[in-house]
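Worked example 2:
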Amino acid sequence: MELTLLGTGAPAGLPRPDCPCAACACALGPDARAAASVLVDGALLLDLTPGAAFAAARAGRSLAGVRQVLLSHPHDGPAVEVPAGLPQPGRVPDGRELTLLTGHRVRAVALDAPGTGYAVTGPDGQRLLYLPPGGAPAGLEAPAEPYATVVLDVLGRPDALARLRETGAVGPATDVVAVHLDHDVPPGPEVRRRLAAADARAVPDGTTLEAGAYEEVPDVPRRTLVLGGARSGKSVEAERRLESFPEVLYVATGGSRNGDTEWAARVSAHQERRPGSWRTVETCDLVPLLKDDGPPLLVDCLSLWLTDAMDAVGAWDDAEWADGGERALRDRVRALTDAVRETRRTLVAVSNEVGSGIVPATASGRRYRDELGRLNTAFAQECEQVLLVVAGQTLPLRG
């Protein structure tokens, strides 16, 4: 089954008309995108958008063989001129199946938001799932086998991809292609980086794909360290890296700090951002979690783990520090980094980068700064990917 993506952008396209934002200003060349529309084997058109005939011609395709035009958006959208020879656009009711004379079978997939998704089975047996912007399947059941290709709003609805993975509809060999790309994420390298973290990819308008063909996508790093200063966006970046995967275990190392209302507000803000399918555990005992099998771990954060470890070894007292405290802390750090090296779980860890600021006024503050720098260095050596977040911008340091 052959898929030609006539457009890959949001309904308004990218850049949006008359939008002065920085993302739209940068959406040039291959990063400029028309509204998403997919031509399947030249016979089925999913979503009719303005300029569809010209888009097909630019891609070296023709709409002359199209036998069915199906709409997926929650409404029919603005009036679009139907090119001569094309059938009038229609919509398949949820749960119903349409069979074309070409041998394609199209089943309407119910969504958790307005609109219609389409599961298309080609004459060759290959299977495609196409979802509209902002939509995720509702009431998914485990399919007999994963889809060969899934085309959906990865950046806008990463939880949709998580649901598909949870039921087995998306497997390791599924080609996940992002469409409905809008100006909420800067185009170019940033889009590719975020999609790679979700084991997905974007392609330019006019790209033709073969369902079932192997497409090389960068492997999702199994161990990632995310560094950054206060309010840099490092926790958001860490959460974003796992939001398209189900059953994440969020490891909070800071505890609840009963009576601290400011800390409670911080914790609440983090909790509200997390997908409902994630579990949370409050602990600094990371080594057993790393040794166990299970879903991906998100550890936030190592700097609070270090505070707990330094409390435990008496690091704030010079006499205790000299009389075995320093050695005990080194042992704890070594046990942690050894567990990171040997873990089979996907791991994303957050830590503060504190070595570039003002030198702490106290000896204990300087000791903490130095030990956190050592911990970050040792932890980073065991990770395939290390990121630094500055002012909400993510800079890859490794991987």
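The chain has ten helices and 18 strands. The mean pLDDT is 91.
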